[in-house]
Amino acid sequence: MSLAASTISSLRSQLISGAIHPRDIIEDIRIKIEAADSRVTGYLSLDFDAALAAAESVDVSLPLGGIPIAFKDNINVLGQPCSCGSKFLNGAYRSPYDATVTARLKAAGAIPLGRTNMDEFAMGSSTENSAVGVTRNPWDVDRVPGGSSGGSAAAVASRCAVAALGSDTGGSIRQPASLTGVVGLKPTYGRVSRYGLVAYASSLDQIGPFTRSVADSATILSAICGSDERDSTTANAQAPKPLGDTSSLAGLRVGIPSEYFGEGLDAEVRSAVDAAIRKLTELGAEAIEISLPHTQYAVSTYYILATAEASTNLARFDGVRYGNRAEKPADILDLYKQSREHGFGAEVKRRILLGTYVLSSGYYDAYYLQAQKARTLFRRDFDAAFKKVDVIAGPTSPYPAFIAGEKTDSPLQMYLADIYTLSANLAGIPAMSQPCGFSTNPALPIGLQLMAKPFDEATLFRVGAAYEAATDWHLKAPF
Amino acid sequence: MTSDKIDIHHIATLARLELSPEEEQLFESQLEKIVDHVEKLSELDLSDVPPTDHAGSVVNAIREDIPRDGITQDATLANAPQSARGQIVVPRVIE
Lengths: 479, 95
Fold this sequence. Notes:
The complex is a heterodimer of chains A (479) and B (95). Helices cover 38% and strands 13% of the residues of chain A.
């Protein structure tokens, strides 16, 4: 197996034994990227010189010593571009600082390599809303990689990155992980600092890893988690325990939410997820049917809250301090309006408008407050479920990767792609997608979603690693 | 819930967006469809349910207010579209 296609754990043992040097991994990634279709490598920009320089002095005894990691283009890395997939920032901004996750990965010996494509400001489910580049699914270039972290997913799936970071506000790590056949983790709200992540919806955003194994996901989470005085929502929680015995799931109760298997679920996705749940029971787990009764309200609740927060968060893009500025504004107000009109793409404008509308005088109580109250019901649904079960299993996405262009004319259809992922963000619980099968004709990856109690990523890793050890879906590569 | 017609021009002004007439027409019809969908929440009786503003467990995190080095003026100005004499230039605000 090539170095670029290896897991972090395998590379780490080779680095420690001295069999390979960190530069060998970076050189192998370079070869892989040059050989692949640039639409499936997922990158917007790459700085090999900086990565190779870092590789010369890195301490390989550190937990991630010598491991190159790709970054979604909304996470700041000192001196690198950070376009957020937007014309507003592309070519006009270089990060003057490291995000906390960046600083922590560097301190753990990881080497930042490459910026990955995304839906503009993380708004989308297909990466088609990027104003900067086109990313397609490595399994079928006519199809989307999912989104909004589609570039990170495609880079890891195409073996053009060992691991990558993404951000997940309503499914933006898990859904592209599902559609490209890799492991994607959205940690608990408060687990990972967002300092240096360009904010979309601050009450929902979390940073998490894309990897090719569950163990690698746990390794990266351990490096980036923990409280940070620069993000006041971070909790002082214990890092997840190292993976224990993954040969048996005896005593584990797996909840199967009936609402996740209803109308709209693709038949092949259903049968792959059903088979995965059977596998968990063969490993000793007990499957228990549960109900998450408010699932049908997730899209409505999410799109009110997320757009409201986005409309305020994106007010900072005014053309004054950084990014796009109008050429000849009549006055300061015109500078704001013209800079934003020309800097933002359609989906970003749509969400800013919706968010402004639901917060505007006369509509606040009817929409925003109503959605905040509905959000409480999602927490209650999960609280009730986790009294009966240890983990919840279901599909990540209602269907495998769709054809590019298929949903771009209907924003609402695109929003419905996230029906199974939104609830975890609303309730703040950790959730992970991992490969659990393929569709036929064409063969496209299918993802299993696991959800657990707040700060219980350890259970996600235990279940995910046991499933992974008993199956080989995670070993399949697109080419 | 109300489902009045959306005054897209007013909303765009609040959002500091200068939309073209074509955009106003498109966004108005798309937003009306989305708002129709989110009206679904009015099915729920939420009169006795408290609102949740975020799902975190941390409340009022505070720390000592100790001055320390931050991002430098030079690094900040490097990203500014227009600057002069160590400051960001904008159109005249006060006549």
